[in-house]
Design a protein that fits this description.
Largest sheet: 4 strands, antiparallel
Oligomer: single chain
Radius of gyration: 30 Å
Shape: globular
Strand content: 5-15%
Helix content: 40-55%
Distance between the termini: 73 Å
Length: 619
Amino acid sequence: MAKKASISCIAVCTLAVFFVVLPGLDSGRALGQTNANTPAQLAASKQKHIETLAVVNGHPITRHQISQECMRRFGEEVLASRIKKLLVLDMCKKNGVMITEGDVNNELIEKAKKFGMSGDKYVQMICSRRNITVDRLKNDITWHELAIRKLAEKNVKVTNQEISERMEFEFGPKVQVRQIVVDSLQQANQIHSQLQTAPENFERLAKQFSLDSNSKSMGGLLQPIRRNSGLPEFEKLAFSLSPDEVSRVLAIANNFVILRCERFYPEADLSPAETAFQHERIEKQLASDKLLESARVLFSTEQKNAKIVNVMNDDVLAKEMPGVAAIVNGLQIFKRDVAEDCITRYGSQMLDTEINRMILIQQLKSASLRVEKADITEEITRAAESLGHLNPDGSVNVDDWLQLMTNDDLSKVDLYIEDQVWPTVALKKLVQDKVTVTQEDMDKGFEANFGPRVEVLVIVSNDHRSALKVWNLASANPTPDYFGKLANQYSIEPASKNNFGAVPPIQKHGGQPDLEKEAFNLQANELSKVVQMGEYWVTMLCLGRTEPVVSDFDAVKEELQKNILEKKLNIEMAQAFQTLRQDSQIDNFLNGTSQPGASAMRSARQQNTNHSSTPSNFR
């Protein structure tokens, strides 16, 4: 049966733009404080007075609209954050804990040092990556971390045994094994019986029967196993084996596992100075980990003992106390404050989403197209089916899919439809007439998904000189065992290094044409030339080829055509939306940005060209 491609819905959303002006940290100024009012800061200071947050091709998007949409999506989260801060403030007051602005700044500077950065650069990086303001980073996130740490630190103690166990995990001996995972004891016993007489067939049986998709394609090969990793029975069994020895059947959860030992790694040879350094580092890390757990328990206890009334989520209370979001130990939190906090945190992101929605609505209207309820249902069903959410009888399990998409909160189905399904359907309607599946597409798709693949060992180098060195070493002894040792010594790519060169088999039309061409030209036990892939160089040793998964084209034709069409649609949709966005005139007053639109700019250039070509006596 054809394996169905994984195709997810496209959520049309572009990155929000934030204006963050960061000062130096010297002269005692706080992070985020500036000496002058820049245009970005002036825009930010006036945000609360802006009623029209954006205009898209002449159509406005209001503050009220964004406030409502933010509250629908993020209101509960922001309210929970405000409740949490009130509780922590109360805990600090009871325990005499005070967090100053200087404490916050020093904490950020210490974090910056770990990255070899200045405080300013670190704050800028974090705010950019998380799409948050400096104020939120300081007064919400960092303040909370410091407060809860000071409250919880008296309950934290790290033992010598814990340090020793972590040292053994990081620097102790390791063992590498292959595994076969099945869900039937009977099948496990049958495979184990075969391995008793022919242990050399372990890799083939792993590829044929193992349920673990991550190791299956590599003959069941796993990353080296460490002690104290959290699976004591698995570790004990792995470390009890000798090289090439096959284990007994081990029951883990609902599965049954058979191991074969590949090799052992000795413990790291650390100098006394290095041992002392790592001991201190691990002690600090364990203390930090325990501190987080202690803080979680402390806050959970405080939360249970607090008197919290969530008015916003109670229809009856909301009518009795309009404008109130929650009451925490008698203190009221107002909806307007939560709404403004939502805009501060997520307004830019939400506004960008609404700008995108407005562009699609305008384009659908221009093309005389509409998104109907049946279109929405069809898209949800397609997405669920493509990712394997099926009932035992083969029908699509839409309910299971919606549970997944809403994190088991079906009250959020409308938001899932608005933010992901509707934009996907809208774009499909706009581009579907431009996409066709050709016979060439079908042939390549069949070959890529069901054709033979090349099994190789690889070594990845980060420069040409290193690659040539590796190639010369490998060419002197092009055997799998020696090549694997070279991979473990020289490959800069973690998986191929740890797995002695083993990687998943290479398919045709997988997006790496140069590598694929070289791989499919190789014969068993033949060494490849050095293949450049962007900034890296790859050397391969061919082990052979896999057998085709499916030989009957007609058996998978319908499913293959459906999957190829979906992939081509996704590519066309992404390109089409990028063009629509570039062509739109967008004035974003919340972020202080303006885009005239590519079509307007082309028109202006044309007018300038026409004007410059007019005879001077007519100007």
